[in-house]
Please model this.
Amino acid sequence: MDQYEFVEPMVQEPMVQEPVVPEPVVPEPVVPEPVVPHEQIENIAVAPPMPVAPPMPVAPPMPVQIPMLPQRFCVHTTQYGREGYYLIRWTHSGFDQDNKRIHCLKPDNHLNRFYNIASRTITPYRWNEIITKKNNGTVSRPMRWSYTDKYLRFDDTRIPVLRITPYNVLPSIKATSFIPISAPVAPVAPLAPVAPVAPLVPLVPKPTMYKIETIPQHVIRALLRDAAMYEEECPITSVDIDITNGAVTSCFHIFEKDAIQKWLSLPNSREKCPICNTPCNSYTLD
Ligand SMILES: [Zn+2]
Model:
């Protein structure tokens, strides 16, 4: 259910490592820990300029477990002169010639949620190598990522803040994937203070109650078939939409039907569409 549990890989890494290591060679000292440029990502004072001279002699034979890139993560950014977090997720897009998994990076959607920034203590920030591909491009390139001691929190959702280099492997930032840091995080009134995020979302003309009686079955079918054909995913669950699991809202947004029904039943949703914030109903095929 919770695919964002990034804590596990971190825990098992240092823990498991010690007992398991076959040779007494301690891997720790070998890893030049605060490697290379995260200035690109965090031009904040935090970045200790550690211009380690030779760029890491290809990480020593990886110990047993290589942490997986979390499916959803975020990156701290000051692009556009605004400080904030950029939400990203990956889908899998095949293997390269060395049979390494290629991750296709896409902007994620903050869904107008109000995230808290939290800290945790973690052990060594190890750089992990990975192959990435932008969602529209054909160019695959290596990148490195590591955890930081920050994460974003929304209810049970925890999204780790990662460092990534080079930064330009990331797709360009969309308004719906960028969470600005405005005020020092205020009390968590769950969906209510949409405020900090709202201005970024393309303004929806003030709805004068969008009422729709129903959507004809053939229209629902056509929309879902289309969504399936273009491999659209549910914005809530990221599950692929198909004709059996999809639902269409009265504002014509498409979701996995269980997810949108659950969403609309939550008091905090106020029966509004998570995408466009319009009061809505959802419809499925009979
Ligand atoms: Zn909508």
